[in-house]
Specification:
Two copies of one chain form a homodimer. Chain A is 49% helix and 14% strand. Chain A is an alpha/beta fold and 341 residues long. Chain A folds into two domains: 156 residues, Glucose-6-phosphate isomerase like protein, domain 1 (Rossmann fold); 124 residues, Rossmann fold. In chain A, the strands form two sheets. In chain A, strands 2-1-3-4-5 form a five-stranded parallel β-sheet, with helices on both faces. A four-stranded parallel β-sheet of chain A has the order 7-6-8-9, sandwiched between helices. In chain A, helix 10 links the parallel strand 6 and strand 7. The first copy, chain A, is globular. At the A-B interface, helix 3, helix 4, helix 10, strand 7 and helix 11 of A face helix 3, helix 4, helix 10, strand 7 and helix 11 of B. Chains A, B: This is Fructoselysine-6-P-deglycase FrlB with duplicated sugar isomerase (SIS) domain. Chains A, B: One of its GO terms (biological process) is fructose 6-phosphate metabolic process. Chains A, B: It comes from Lactonifactor longoviformis DSM 17459.
Chain lengths: 341, 341
């Protein structure tokens, strides 16, 4: 690999090494998926709060696309309060928590366990409250959304493969091996754009973010968990399909808009928004996933990988460059987990 | 009824008369619901764009609460782009469009028709593109969300009753007869609060709106269709359950927050947010649905009616008072439906 310029707060070698560690989980993840796929489920429940519901959104869309099993993405706090009747002994429940102790998620898990549901959790350590409440755990401490998605995807696509719904799993999983080196190359290429945009826009008083389809969860993560929680930046996220019912009226010449042009069938909806935006704001950032795809991976898989493609350059680079220019460390919160509430 | 003070841009007699007209649809609506309930469906699809998806949210939550039939609330543009596999000849599709010609909804309807799905549309005129594309139409020109919800509720609850899932339908439907006079009394009582709040806050540069559960769709309608589209007011809507992952960091002493305290099992989540907000913002509006309930209706139905309870005072009064103070007519758009996009 050619020598790259150093990127702000980024360690190339650690990123590649993390990729190897996560890919090494392929076999244990497949073993769990294979075992679970032997049973028939009435539905699949994806649950968590905050970043977890955001990342599970892509998993939800994948199941909807390839399978006939009903799938529901539930906020853990609401599902628990309502004793959601869809959680039964015939449910497969997937949950996750980075800290391993998110109270809403852990409580929902215990509730689901009592109903007799089968529970798989993605956690970052062997022993934590969420792991204790689960039937199966997939443990991996590697941070970064590339790693989060890789674990989730290997699991769910293997599961669907065993159900006869995703024929090309082996080729997909083989190609995931090159994901990190591919991602790193793209990160380096995009970092200058990310840096320039961050410098230009970090002081915006209000931003609109627009996108559609399978990347919408990742966009929730970007706007909620990063812009709001970590940078205290006011923004409005809206889907390309709902944009024309409300949010469009907020667009003015000096309102900053970030539009993500995705891959797949809803790209036309993003393009419709793009056409509208041209000339209506002078502060438009377009993130076109067509230009940021992974070259080592077959075209047919790029759509389902698009949350990773987006995360690779945005959560992976743009947000760090925002920190660099704003001087507001991504780890500083005034409220979140600072005290009980 | 005692003589009331006149409310800004509101006609008491027309409101009551509209209520009578909508309630007169009870029998024809029940006939359609009864006929449709004879068939078994694999799922129920609720679809539309903008305000329609917002109002269908409550219907979705009601079906989830009372029935085991899988239900999905789909944005029509995305569902059509993806040829959503959940739409099949075994689907019951419910759609709506005030104008009757919303292109995304009409196109989805034709697509659903081709799959063989059964389609029911709520429209405001006998002949319109959406009506042409549907198998059954429920026609009613009466505007106002009270009327919209009443039609939807009579249909879906009658349907669930026939499926054995909502035993007390007859009592519910009988009590709906008093809804408008009850609603009118509460409107008058709340109008002074709405007026004072609107005067105080119509110039806010940014607002946060928080709520949970069955009223969240109505809150989408308030913030997206009214604040954004009709008043060009910047705001951020977040659920009580997701508030603690992102949006909380945006709360400052001078940031205006509207918190809706709902009825039912998720009220505890709203109260948790309320406790957090106390002292953290000096601009807090609390809309407590406990204090705005319909007195002529049994307690057990108040939860499912809560979107109407909320709409009655907010879309019904607060938003009109916003117009009064901002001087920005609710009917003025700069973009929406002003030209092709």
């Amino acid at each position: 690999m050619p020598k790259h310029e150093e990127m702000y707060k980024f360690d190339d070698q650690k990123f590649l090494l993390d990729g190897i560690k996560v890919y090494a989980l392929r076999v244990p993840i497949e073993m769990i998926a294979d075992k679970l796929a032997q049973k028939e489920y009435k539905n699949i429940i994806l649950s968590g709060v905050g970043g977890t519901t955001a990342e599970m959104y892509a998993v939800c869309r994948i199941i909807e696309k390839y399978s006939d099993i009903p799938v529901y993405l539930l906020n853990a706090a609401e599902a628990l309060a309502e004793k959601d009747r869809r959680i039964t002994r015939n449910s497969l429940v997937l949950t996750a928590s980075k800290s391993g102790d998110t109270p809403e998620t852990v409580s929902l898990c215990w509730y689901a366990k009592k109903t007799g549901a089968t529970i798989v959790s993605f956690v970052s350590m062997e022993h934590c409250p969420l792991a204790e409440a689960s039937d199966y755990k997939i443990v991996s401490a590697e941070e970064g959304m590339e790693n989060t998605y890789m674990r989730l995807y290997l699991f769910i696509l293997r599961f669907l493969y065993r159900k006869g719904d995703f024929q090309n799993y082996e080729r997909f999983a083989d190609q995931m091996k090159s994901l990190h080196s591919d991602a790193l190359r793209i990160k380096h290429a995009y970092d200058r754009v990310a840096d320039a945009n961050a410098e230009k826009y970090w002081q915006e008083p209000y931003q609109i973010w627009i996108g559609s389809d399978i990347v919408f969860g990742e966009m929730t993560l970007l706007t909620m968990c990063i812009l709001e929680e970590m940078q205290w930046m006011r923004n409005r996220l809206v889907s390309s399909s709902e944009f024309f019912h409300g949010a469009l009226e907020l667009v003015e010449k000096d309102v900053m808009v970030t539009l993500v042009k995705g891959l797949g069938p809803c790209r036309a909806l993003d393009e419709r928004v793009e056409k509208f935006l041209q000339g209506r704001t002078q502060k438009l950032v377009i993130v076109d996933l067509e230009e940021l795809k992974f070259t080592g991976i077959d075209e047919e898989f790029q759509y389902i990988l698009s949350p990773i493609i987006l995360s690779n350059v945005m959560a992976g680079r743009y947000c760090w460059n925002l920190e660099k220019h704003s001087g507001h460390d991504l780890s500083i919160r005034r409220y979140y987990r600072q005290f009980k509430y």
